Amino acid sequence: LGTGGIKPCVSSFGGDQFMKSESSRLQRFFSMFYFSINAGSMVATLMTPELRAAKCLGEETCYPLAFGVPAVFMVVAVVAFVVASRWYVMIPPLGNPIIDVAKVSMALIRGKSPEQLYGAKKVADVRQLYRVLCVFIPFPFFWALFEQQGSRWVVQADRMDGRISGFELKPDQMQVFNPVLILCLIPTFEVVVYPLMRKIGLPTSATFRMISGMVLVSSSFVICGFVQLAMENRVTAWNEANPDLTPATFETLDKTQQLHILTTIPQIFVITCGEILCSITALEFAYAYAPQSMKSVCQSMFLLTNACGNICVIIFTKITKEDLYLYFMWAAIELGAAFLMYYICRRVQAPLDAYKNAGAAPKDTAADAQEMEAGSNGTKALAAPYEE
């Protein structure tokens, strides 16, 4: 419940602090927002096991400390947020967007004129919402691949040689490379990659970045598939070199005969680049193109695609039990999702931009007047300085 209240609102609230003319700063904000999330994730991943391993209260482990320290940090964060709230731009909500969407949608289904019933502005907002949601259709497949870093990729790493100068690198510890790379690559993309793309004439629009990110995520699973193939070839080579011994299988071959666990770093690097291009840009896209009254709704729907992605994993993994085939299958699925994203953006980009560039939906009719008047006193004073 707490996460559901924070995640959809905090990114939208942060975006509300910028003027419409500050699009470049808005893009940088979402990058820094994502940076801070991964910084916290990395610190928690490194610190929490150490706190848990401490001795306290007569026990060999200290779970109260492991849970208590993050709880204290959360209290400090809430206090800091409340103290600084006087300097934030806070736009009061107008009505219930879920109910508005349901009303307009039912009117469209029944063949009635929603503009006459609810006003042109509200109808334009709902249509814009549906356009944004169409762009989110391929994202479950993105998350289906991305979340396998913590499942199938860990299983792959578990069959590898993790020895490094007497230290054993555990398979699940490879997951720390993702937040570390995020912290390194976000500034690199902002300072080097995006300016270089503009300099050589490559587009840096949100849709181009998201499609490119999906292609990179697909490529990471291609790399993963070739790593898996090399590991299986190691098993075949060992059996051919030792014909008098009991044949080894992929699961029983000694790890010291397998590839080193650091062989997985290239695929982690590529999927992290795809995450920066796709996930961060999608947060920015959901805010920039959503109607003013539905920005948190769009963020919520984007987060919902993550849950849909996990369902996709459950469904598609039943096709085959062979890891090698699964990696290449997921790569093909994600590449198809990238083409789907391209097709959808080609269809909806023009009306998306038309709505956004207009600065507002069509002028309100009499049906909107009463509702708008109720919130105009507070909203106009806050929103006026942030209009172009």
Textual characterization of the structure:
The chain has helices at residues 2-15, 23-53, 63-83, 97-109, 114-118, 120-135, 139-146, 152-158, 177-199, 206-241, 265-289, 295-316, 323-358, 366-383; strands spanning 163-164, 167-168. It has 388 residues and is mostly helical. Strands 1-2 form a two-stranded antiparallel ribbon. α1 crosses α12, α7 (139-146) packs across α13 and α9 (177-199) crosses α11.
Trace the largest sheet across and list its strands. Answer: 1-2
User: In angstroms, what is the radius of gyration?
Assistant: 25 Å
Write down how many β-strands occur, each being a DSSP E stretch of 2 or more residues.
2
What is the helix/strand order? HHHHHHHHEEHHHHHH
Sheet having the most strands:
2 strands, antiparallel
Query: Mean pLDDT, nearest integer?
Result: 84
Span between termini: 36 Å
Unreliable residue stretches: 360-388
Work out the strand percent.
under 5%
Q: What spatial form do the alpha-carbon principal axes imply? A: globular
The total count of helices amounts to 14
Q: State the helical fraction.
A: over 70%
